[in-house]
Amino acid sequence: MEMDLTDTVLMAQHPCAEQQRQEILTAFAPLLKRVARMYQDVAGYDEAYQEACLGLLRAIATYRPEAGPFPAYAKARVHGDVRTAMRRLWTAAARQAFAPPAFGEDESAPHDIGDTLAHVIAAMTDGTSDDAVDRCLLQDVIARLAACAGLSARERIWLRAALWPDDRGACERAWSQL
Predict the structure, then answer these.
(1) Using CA atoms, how far apart are residues 71 and 84, in angstroms rounded to an integer?
(2) pLDDT digits (tens, 9 = 90+) for 3-22
(3) CB 157 within 8 A of CB 168
(4) Rounded to 10 degrees, what is the CA torsion of 48, 49, 54, 59?
(5) Residue 29 — pLDDT band, cuts 50, 70, 90?
(6) In angstroms, what CA-CA distances link 5 with 8, 19, 27, 61, 164?
């Protein structure tokens, strides 16, 4: 049985051997399903199953008989590849944990920090309102965005000094809320 599987895997390594690859995928379906169930809470069952199938296809492509039996190699490769893919998702989720909250579904509302600042600066430069009101609005928006960004104490000090070098008293109220 082992030699037959090894021969099937070696034949499946050829580009035109779709039928052999399909046979191996079918034979290892229980492993693929078990691994997908292990990680279904991270990315959903379908995504985890797809990563498991890709891991098995990579195992077929890189298998060498002198390294040992294919089932052990395939199991290790599938688990490792799926774990690596899920780790990428965990890392991406951790990096986005401190992203500023969305403003809503309104099309006219800004969608990121750059859009927010552009919106406020446009309001300041259109000449329709008082400069003091626009300046206060800009300070408030920047203070809120800085709070969402999770700046360190040193970064907050630098931002305060860079944006309002002359107006310490008015800015202190906005920054005290951070």
Answers:
(1) 20
(2) 688 888 888 888 888 899 99
(3) no
(4) 100
(5) very high
(6) 5, 14, 10, 14, 71
